[in-house]
Amino acid sequence: MRLSAILLISTSLVLSACATHPDVPDAVHSELVAPYELDSGDQLRVIVFGQDDLSNTYVVDQAGAITMPLIGTIPARGRTTNEIAANVETRLKNGYLRRPNVSVQVDKYRPFFAMGEVGVAGQYAFVPGMTVQQAVAVAGGFSPRADTTSVEVTRSIGGRVESGELQLSDPVLPGDTITVRERLI
Residues 132, 77: one domain? Predict the structure, then answer.
């Protein structure tokens, strides 16, 4: 009788260890392969070839735009660097330059945020290719009470805020909020 109970408990524990985490919404993973969309806090390097006065670093402001000399405000939120370059070229052609050649690159990505059961919750600089585990390490690592198997990540996708549970090896995106939960046991 005792042997049957021990076998039953052991089997239950082994099977519960095989349980998978709930699927992350498709929007979370599709964002990883989509072109990078700019948002507030991104810093752009705009180069207008042959025009040193126009070439500079511009920060996407809270309204989601950058402001350049001569051409004024350019909407940037939700756009790619190629779209910004085309917009700047078009505006410069309208009475300022004959054949402008513009390049736009992300100079510095907006920060990510870490909260919950991490060493030091706060805002941190994003590094391309960063994983959830690396982001937690930057935030001082897991606290002694942390659930170290997965974390919740909240991100803005196409103007919607979505949350999903990610594994430690999953990538982090600029602007993500990483929440490490307390373990139940």
Answer: no
Q: Is the CB of residue 74 less than 8 Å from the CB of residue 86?
A: no
Say how many Å lie between the first and final Cα of the chain, rounded: 29
Q: What is the pTM of this model?
A: 0.74
Nearest residue to 77 via CA among 38, 34, 35: 38
Using 70 as the pLDDT threshold, list the residues of the chain that sit under it.
1-33, 158
Nearest alpha carbon to residue 71 among 86, 90, 45, 43: 90
Q: Give me the CATH number covering residue 95.
A: 3.30.1950.10
Residues contacting 170, CB < 8 A, separation 6+: 24, 131, 132, 153
Q: Are residues 158 and 67 in the same domain?
A: no
